[in-house]
Structure formats: C-alpha cells, structure tokens
Amino acid sequence: MASHIVGYPRMGPKRELKFALESFWDGKSSAEDLEKVATDLRVSIWKQMADAGIKYIPSNTFSYYDQVLDTTAMLGAVPDRYSWTGGEIGFSTYFSMARGNATVPAMEMTKWFDTNYHFIVPELGPNTKFSYSSHKAVNEYKEAKALGIDTVPALVGPVSYLLLSKPAKGVEKSFSLLSLLSSILPVYKEVIAELKAAGATWIQFDEPTLVLDLDSHQLAAFSAAYTELESALSGLNVLVETYFADIPAESYKTLTSLNSVTAYGFDLIRGAKTLDLVKSAGFPSGKYLFAGVVDGRNIWADDLAASLSTLESLEAIVGKDKLVVSTSCSLMHTAVDLVNETKLDSEIKSWLAFAAQKVVEVNALAKALAGQKDEAYFAANAAAQASRRSSPRVTNEEVQKAAAALKGSDHCRATNVSARLDAQQKKLNLPVLPTTTIGSFPQTVELRRVRREYKAKKITEEEYVSAIKEEISKVVKIQEELDIDVLVHGEPERNDMVEYFGEQLSGFAFTANGWVQSYGSRCVKPPIIYGDVSRPNPMTVFWSKLAQSMTSRPMKGMLTGPVTILNWSFVRNDQPRFETCYQIALAIKKEVEDLEAGGIQVIQIDEAALREGLPLRKAEHAFYLDWAVHSFRITNCGVQDTTQIHTHMCYSNFNDIIHSIINMDADVITIENSRSDEKLLSVFREGVVYGAGIGPGVYDIHSPRIPSTEEIADRINKMLAVLDTNILWVNPDCGLKTRKYTEVKPALTNMVSAAKLIRTQL
Ligand code: GLN
Ligand code: ZN
C-alpha cells in the first residue's frame, strides 16, 4: 500500500525561506546565500518524507515565491513591461514579476481558491509567446534524484493555468484564454520529455479548477489537453490532482475517461461527496486513486480509525494495489512542525498534527492498510481523539445551548436603517460628508516594543497602560487637529485584529511557529479555535471608554466581526463552521452591548474576511451567506436606534454578494475602493436604494503615495454623481497601521480639506 503527499510548506519550520528572501531583496545577502537556504530546505523535506516511508514524494512543490509564477516562468510568459529578452529566467526577472521593481509594477496577485494563499496571476493575450524558459521542475527532480530519492515532479496543469490567468491589458473582450492551450502544450511536452529523460516515472498535474463549476467548453479543454499530451506522456504514470472541494459528477466523468491519465487525486476532506460518487459512478479499472484523507488545510490530528475505514471501503472498489493514501491538498496550507511548539499545553498538542506530523499519519495509514498497523501509534491517536471529544475545555454547555437557540430564528434591529440614521444624526450632529478613518493608526517600532515587553512581563501593567494611554491621546489629538468628525483610538494595543480578540476569548489557542504562507515571503499565524467560544470579560471597553473620555467628538468602538475571526483562524472540525461562528457572534454581541452601556455611540464591526469564506461552488453560496450575515446581525441586533453600527470590508468586488451586504443591515459600510471605481457604480446604485451610509475609500492606503486635495475631491465628486449626498462618508480605504505618520498626516489633511471643499460647493 503506497503513500503520497500532494505538496509541502516551503517556508521552513522557522520561516527560514522568508528571512533568506527578505535579506536577499534588501541586498544584504547574495543569490548564492538564498539558493543555499532553499536547497537545504528542499533536501530536508525530501529526506524527512523518505525517512517517514512515503512512496510518492513530490518535487517542484518548492517555490521562491509562487507555483503559478513558476509556471509562468516555465512557459516564458513574461509580460512585455519587464523587458525580458529570453534565456533562462533568473531572480531579477522572476522577482520583478512578483514584486515589481523601481520602474515597473508587479503582476496582480489574487487568492488561491478559498485559501489565504495568494498567487501571481498570469497576464496572457493572443500575442503572448511561449518558450521553455525555466528548468526548475527538471532541476528539482534531478536534485532529489542525486540524493537517491525518486520523486514525482508536480506541475500546475495546463488547463488550470489558463483558467487562473487573466487577459493582459488591452486585449479584446472576445479573447478566450483557453485558445492558448495549443500554444502552451508544446512547452509542457518539452518539460515532460526532459523529466522522462532524467528518469521520472511519475508526473503530477495539479488541476484544482476541476472542482469548480465548469461549463462544457472548459471541460472539453481538459479532454483536449490530456489527449494532446498523450504520446508525450506515454510510459509515465500520470496523476491529475484535484483539491479543495468535491469533484462534480460531469468533471469526474471527463477526468476518468482520459486515456493518458493513470491516477486521480481527490480531496476527501472538503470533498465528502466524492466518496459517494466513486461508489456510485464506479472507478476505471487499472487506474490509481490517490485518496486525500489527511487534511492539508487544518491542524487537527487525523482520526486514523475513521480514515482507515474510508480507505478500506475505497479499497474494495479500486483494488488493493491501486489505492494510494494521500493528503487532501498540499500541506502548504497548514503549519509546518508541531515539534517547535514547546509552549502549547500538552493536552491541546495531543490533538494536533502539522505538516511534519501529517506525513507520518499518511504513512501510518498506508502501512495499516498493508496489514502492518502500528498498534501503539493508532492507540495513542484514538486516545487523543477521545480526549478531544470529552474534554471539558472543548465543551461549554451554556454556550452550546445559546448558539443552538439562534438557529432558525432571525435577528434584526427593530427599526429600518433610514429611521435609525435619523435618530443617530440627532445625537451625533455630523456635517454632510462626515470624515472618519478605518481604525488603526501607524504602528511605530516603539509601540511594538511596548507591547512585546508587556507580554514578556518586562514592564508592569501600569507602565503598559500609561504608554498606550499616551499613544491614544496622541492619536486623538491629531484627529482633532485634522478636524476629523468621527474619531478612532488607533488600535495601539492590538498586534492583529483577530489575535487580539482570540487571546481574550475562551476556546482559542495560539502557536509560536504555526505560520502559513500568505504570499511571497509573507506568512500568517492563525489562532486555533479548539473549543466552545465565550467571552469571560469585556475586551475593548476599557480602551474605548478611555479614548472617548479624551474628546467630545464621537469615538468609534472597534471590533472584529465573527465571520472574520472564523475565516482567519484554524477552525474546529468537530462541528459545522456556522456553529462556531454563531458562538463567536454571541461573544461579540456581549462586547457590543458593553460598549453601548459604556457610552460608545458608534461601533464598527469589521468583516474584512466575509467574502473570503465564500464557497467555491455557486450552489453553496446561499447557505454560507445566510449564516455569515446572520452572525453579523446577531452581534448588533440588540442595540438602540441611536447607536450607529459601522462595518468595514477590505474589498470592493461584491457585485455578486450585494444583497447579502445589504442584509447585514449596518448603518454605515466603509469599503476598499481605490482600485476599481467603475465596478462599484452598480453597487452604489443599490446602496441608494438601501439608504445606509457608504464610505468607499477615497485613497489607497497600500501605497506610500500622498494623494492631493484635488485628487480626493475629484473622487468624491465622482461618487456624488451616483450617490446621495447625505449617505456618503469620506474615509481612507483601510486601516493605517502599516503607514508612517509622515504619510498619514498629509494624506488625512488633504482628505479633510477635500471633504470641506466639496461641502462648500453643495
Ligand atoms: N480596524 C482595522 C484597522 O484599521 C481594519 C483592518 C482591516 O479591515 N483589515 O486596522
Ligand atoms: Zn480593510
């Protein structure tokens, strides 16, 4: 019985690659230094898998930045603006595409399916020339081979590559990306030929787009591509790997009828229906099924007994020698190695498995199927599963009951939004085009030091409170001087908008090194929600009241919403996501009510990640949006009409979810807008119907550039062309945390001047 791993984290157990990349980009180390770190990481990962007993070990799953960009390099599809003149693509062109350079901006980055990983979007057009320009896949194969490890080289499949691309600027609307298939396949053929010549016997094509809603034209492209590659692939075992959802029946039919493909990888964690499909639709005889039973997207130890029984039922269908135990997707979406979590308490630790541990689980399952079950290992796993099920730290009856009572019922504010806004205006007395900011102010080195020292108990609580208090008073003063209408306290006490709340809620645990790559060298460290969530004490009330006491202007209370907390955490897998979300919503509701009781009249509940949780397939959107919106409403359904609820979202393309946004029924919505004005217009029109306040960001905070008053005024005027004067708010795109005061002060000065200028023209 064989075992396989779809892919492995590249960053290293202590983010070695991150530091090597950043030092190289800063000019502090050489290309050789970077290559050395990368080689060491690859070698240690291969050895680790080989030592664990994994039969099909992947190569080419390492990347200096991103696997889709690697494919762009392989195909030589470098956009013209990088002035690449051919030859093997080196660091300079590669990192220019990823990050831009002094003269040319980077390529666009977008989310990899519904993960928090971002890939570099290929820009293709009818004139794009393709040529084999990065031998990385072959080089990595040979590198492993030299160590005596025969790997399965992994490539992003040709159809997924094209379906994830976008038409380059200026390309005709009628252009079809899939029409490039016949232009990229010759390069794939060259790569395949070289891999064969180097001794490869297997090849893996990642085709995750196969789990999406595809039309018949797109499915036909899969058949065409793998038929065209058939002779090139002959003699190789070909694995087509899918992941992140179950595979639709039509796609399953197409995929399993391809002659050139000899093995299929399915995600059996997110794709629970795939198992039934394989059972009902049958499986082609003589082909391999790579069963993704070990979760690549989460940090929980596998329930080995349950997986074993799944595998046994598959074995009866596909045959003993054709079933391969695998991970649900690449392990790059989970943390690297539990060994480094020395501070995590041992009970919780026994419930977890990071990438390194998952490799061992996969192998243990394969051995068990082959009749060599490691009884002690399985017994320890069963004991840990049982302890997780029965631990009083996981279950809180009261919370369970309260959350269960929410289902089926609706939660909404008593009065409609227009009436509420009138009531609020009587109290707040704001000018037209009120100005505000999204929450955070620049986080200085000094501020980070204070937080760090307090955490390490190097300074006392009094010292900490007085330092933060001083910072808040500075931020309040700046805003008063700028003459901003609705103030914020600046969030100086917060490291991260989810972690800050997670640390104060029960049911959350934190790792020291549980990093997951987000993009390039950037990693995030999601909290782990392991138990029922409750709020033992108020979390933000002290700081918000303190800030409000410093000014007569309204001070916004600042909270992170339940859906965002959920979507940016590792979530429990022993209850549905919505149940966990309702629990968080109830905890935030208490906080909202305490803020209101504490005299805070405006409360912002950020839902930066609401859209991120949208399921990959349309049929599942409605259900998700329903409970996500419901969760948000739970948090503030109980406040008085005069309490103004804001929400903020870090995106603007919600044309397709606008009705859900309206259903959230916030009083004011601030959104990111700096990059896509035109697209927003239709949304705005709906906003007019809705009647709530809307603050589309008037300038981009992701750039150090300082926008002029005229420029901002121009933007506001454009918005006023479609929006009622009395619903428009004036604010930046997002929080100012990553900016410097030297940028923030002049930018906000211009923003306020622009608002004032336009007020005089109304
Ligand atoms: N209130 C948060 C801040 O300003 C919002 C950030 C976000 O939405 N990503 O930092
Ligand atoms: Zn934002």
Can you give a write-up of this model?
- There is one protein chain.
- By secondary structure, the chain is α/β, with parallel strands linked by helices.
- It has two domains: 2-335 and 343-390, TIM Barrel; 415-697 and 726-738, TIM Barrel.
- The protein has 28 helices and 21 strands.
- An eight-stranded parallel beta sheet has the order 1-12-11-10-9-8-6-2. A five-stranded parallel beta sheet has the order 17-18-19-20-21.
- Strand 14 (516-519) and strand 15 (522-524) form a beta hairpin.
- Helix 18 (445-455) packs antiparallel against helix 19.
- The longest helix is centred in the N-terminal third of the chain and has 22 residues, at 31-52.
- It starts with a strand and ends with a helix.
- The structure holds glutamine (GLN) and zinc ion.
- Zinc ion is lined by residues 438, 608, 648, 650, 672, 734.
- Its EC number is 2.1.1.14.
- It is an enzyme of class 2 (transferase).
Short description:
By secondary structure, the chain is of the alpha/beta class. The protein contains 28 helices and 21 strands. Bound molecules: glutamine and zinc ion (ZN).
CATH class of the largest domain: Alpha Beta
> How far is the N terminus from the C terminus?
75 Å
Level of helix content? 40-55%
The strand line-up of the biggest sheet is: 1-12-11-10-9-8-6-2
Radius of gyration: 27 Å
Content of β-strand: 5-15%
Structural class designation: alpha/beta
Count of β-strands: 21
Low-pLDDT parts are: none
